[in-house]
Amino acid sequence: MKFYITTPIYYVNDRPHIGHVYTTTIADIFARYHRLCGDEVFFLTGTDEHAAKVVDAAAERKLTAQQWADQNAQAFQEAFVKLGIASDDFIRTSQPRHKEKVREYVTELLKTGDVYLGEYEGWYDAGQEEYVTENKAKEYEFKSPVNGKPLVRKKEKNYFFRLSKYAGALLDLLDRQPDFVRPEIRRNEIVNRIREGLNDVPISRTGGGDWGIRVPGDDTHAIYVWIDALFNYLSTVDTGERNRFWPADVHLIAKDILWFHAVIWPAMLLALKRELPRQVYAHSFWISEGQKMSKSLGNFVDLEKIDSYVTNYGLDALRYFLASNGPMGINDSDFAEAKFVEVYNADLANDLGNLVNRTLSMVQRYRQSVPAATQTGLRADAEKAVAVYREKMQRLDLTGAIEAQRVFVTRANKYVDESAPWKLAKDPTHASRLDAVLYDLAESVRLLSCLVAPVMPGVAMRIREQLGIPAKLEALGEELKWGRLAAGTRVGTIAPLFPKKI
Ligand code: MSP
Asked: Is 380 exposed, middle or buried (0-12, 13-18, 19+ CB in 10 A)?
């Protein structure tokens, strides 16, 4: 099976922060999970570069727009590599491979009449480079909800996309395929907004010098940055062998950009007669120490902050925190150091780390190598955890999958306490019982090395090295079967996985 997952492409005018890192890390986790399942995965992230404000920001620094975009795209790329993101490609909208495709798509839409030249007047948010509907403008009191600057009344000759034509088809899609937009609340929001009616949308601009992709046949207009950007998901794979990845299985985004992904994007694909993505998943937001992150507060969890977490707790612990406590649902999550330390100590140091450490130490102390055993007291719990974990991962229910793993770790730790191997070891008549308990625990640790692998790939390898099995995992279908751990496996060098923090 193929699995194509995308993140938004990020504005090059911004510096990478925890929001960008979050979506990309979550996508990386699902990509890794599917790779482990043996799927053919394509995981795409990248940068969105043709905003008109890139030209201004570059000019302030006496750079060309391209130079400024190059610098900042590199900052994103380097940050992602450092944070263990294994994407299959990194698309930049200023790359010729993207620009050529976008011109092809727009040429086609001009031909079918789904894109036409018209005039538009409305409330414009210059900072966001987007028009706001009359209703929204009223609700915002004619000020930008992002930077508070007044919305401006703007009138321009524009190319339009005939969005109005697709309202019925979109409602139909959301009805037949309710999972097209998740979570469900977000789907319902979209359905309600479409029911209010859809207007055609402008898809070109005239400002911004020669930065951007020209409208085919009219050099005075550039394609509006959002339209240009959405096409990245298709343009990257719309070539040769890569075509087999289309349609995308998941567009992972946050709720801020749902309208573009759940309405405009599928409508454009319908107009192009292309297959539609299978799902748009919109998560919520991280706030920072109880407050919304904003430029005015200067409280972004930025790369420097992120780096300090990696240094203090390890990259895998950061990924675990993002995955287990992140805003995958409909509520925002707080990125707070106290919470981070609490989760680190409870889930990682005390639960998982302790289970691995005490299991391997006991195997080494009492038996030198993993004993042979048939009776098992943990197998049923393990199999249940594996089944729940897999089902949740398939559904993108990351918190649910991690919860299944956590429940199993708790159960296994309890099993250690209940069976008290240190007592069994004192009495030779309990030798076979001790063998069974140690095998159960060692096999559970092996299974856990597989379950944690998508979220904590480094920890998975370290668990496996300490257990004395190959660091690299085989296909999950095989790895997740109880009983794979061979008797006689010699435990390697044991070291704590998560030193406790105060
Ligand atoms: N360039 C557009 C997207 C075009 S996609 C065809 C854009 N870029 S952005 O740089 O502003 O990134 C927005 C995305 O960053 C959000 O959808 C989300 O994935 C991530 N986040 C930005 N801030 C966030 C939080 N505070 N919390 C979680 N994720 C957020 O919009």
From this structure: exposed
